[in-house]
Please model this.
Amino acid sequence: MHSPEPGIDPLRGIGMTSQRTRDRMASRLADQGIRDPRVLEVMAREPRHLFLDEALSHRAYEDTSLPIGHGQTLSQPWIVARMTELVIQEQPSRVLEVGTGSGYQTLVLSRLVPELWSVERINALHRRAGQRLRLLQASNFRLRLADGGHGWPEQAPFDVILLTACAGEMPAPLLAQLADTGVLITPLADAQGQQWLTRVRRRGSAFEHQRLEPVRFVPLLEGVIR
Ligand code: SAH
Model:
């Protein structure tokens, strides 16, 4: 990458992608109820604008989801923060993310959990996410191009599984790949089609559901696009 001006680091950004803009996003997240200082610190530090096409990067720190191509979206900062908070509350060692997308949520998680696996079904997104994560020197993660509904059986069990797309019904393989007392954090639709962020905790063969906030995610789809 070349610098736009001598002495300016393109990874850190300028103007609408500057450190000051990131700090403002972090204080807004705190106002919106994000309490965990580790989440706020990581999101204030990491360059979210690098996970968007250049034409959209100036909007990266707005309180909104943004298109990343292929009909998919980078989740709004609040939802990334909230899901990250829910993941690290569990003090997990092994985390599986379904829906790598841009890789931004993957990056934030990789800074806060020991080991991370992330699955994406669209090859173009999977590849670009890998490039960005390597550029930012994340190292404790592995990406796979696959239908995440099947999980990542060779690496199971996971302490936390996070879905960043909404399933009609919970894929059974994901529940099976949870460690005992592990949790799955996912959007789940009710009978009216309203999606809720939901925490499913495994207790042996039982699964307790807890409904959290109303959310809106793209659907979990089957198959792989190469
Ligand atoms: N966390 C991502 C969210 C991207 S949107 C981000 O913030 O950028 C959800 C992603 O889930 C999309 O990239 C979509 O392609 C992916 N997805 C949907 N169904 C999937 C499946 N069955 N397996 C893996 N990825 C899936």
Q: What stands out?
A: The pocket of S-adenosyl-L-homocysteine is lined by residues 68, 72-75, 98-99, 101-102, 104-105, 119-122, 125, 147-149, 164-165, 218, 220-221 (CB under 6 Å). The chain is about 25% helix and 25% strand. The chain has a mean pLDDT of 95.
